[in-house]
Amino acid sequence: QAKKLGGNRVKFYSNDMNHQAMFRIELESYLRKALEKNEFFLCYQPFIDIQSKRVIGAEALIRWDHPKLGLVSPAEFIPLAEETGLITDIGVWVLRSACLEAKRWHEIGIGDMTISVNVSAHQFQQPTFIQEVKKALMASGLEPSYLQLELTESVMLRNATYSIAVMKELQELGVQLSVDDFGTGYSSLSYLRDLPINNLKIDRSFIKNLRYDSKDVAIVHAIVTMGKGLNLKVIAEGIESEEQLQLLETLSCDVAQGYHLSKPRGQEEFEKFIKESLMSFI
Ligand code: C2E
Ligand code: MG
Ligand code: MG
Ligand code: MG
């Protein structure tokens, strides 16, 4: 991941170290003001139930539109927000906005959809995190079972005992928990027994080259089988072709997400997409 980040920066700016350091400082100062300047917005990428082909929810993905830099990828600024602690306020904004939006979907009758929110390490470790989740639910009036939180293995396992306690409390509230980027961490599988989770999101690196004759089929099959045995819903992310979707259906994967179904869309575009999908069942 660090490699990928570095790669991006070199493309955008000179590979001179000084320039990179300068850019980082500049980026940080822009990031500090981004919230108050209203430069963030959320995109929504639908989750499709593979059996019924219905949209059952969406993942909220943050976007930063800076007047000078243009759109900055979250892969670029979320790590910086983590390092600087700015993620705490940004995370609160994402949670609140996402819950409000999901509640609005319910109210305007475009389906009882779940909203899935990414949570990063620093944000999750904050002692105020549970309180912030409760506040976002209360302020929006969203039923907790319609909120899903996405945590990566490294986020959950950084401080496992503490994490388990927080996750249990979140589940007691009724919130759903997903393991994001499943299969890319270095941890043993034992945490699947010990941590309270509801969903596994198979990382898109296993889906990218998924074909009938690939090793990835064996891996995805094993993950789906294990997920079923553990009573977890299995979600595949990064589906880019019909062949992959059909293969996942054959493998009994529960939920699909990816460009083939829909790219992340802004609020209005997403709403339009949902309304159209309600008429055509996709
Ligand atoms: P993620 O949570 O694993 O999200 C999936 C990423 O894959 C998204 O990139 C999405 O746009 C992209 N994607 C979806 N379908 C496809 C596909 O079919 N092919 C390909 N090649 N890519 C696909 P995005 O939006 O740039 O986000 C990148 C990462 O930034 C996310 O990975 C997540 O870790 C983080 N992130 C995004 N929004 C937030 C947020 O609100 N809070 C936090 N803490 N992290 C966020
Ligand atoms: Mg995610
Ligand atoms: Mg992911
Ligand atoms: Mg990812």
UniProtKB/TrEMBL annotation:
Domain EAL: 24-278
Top-level lineage group: Bacteria
Full protein name: Diguanylate cyclase (GGDEF)-like protein/PAS domain S-box-containing protein
Species, as recorded: Sutcliffiella tianshenii
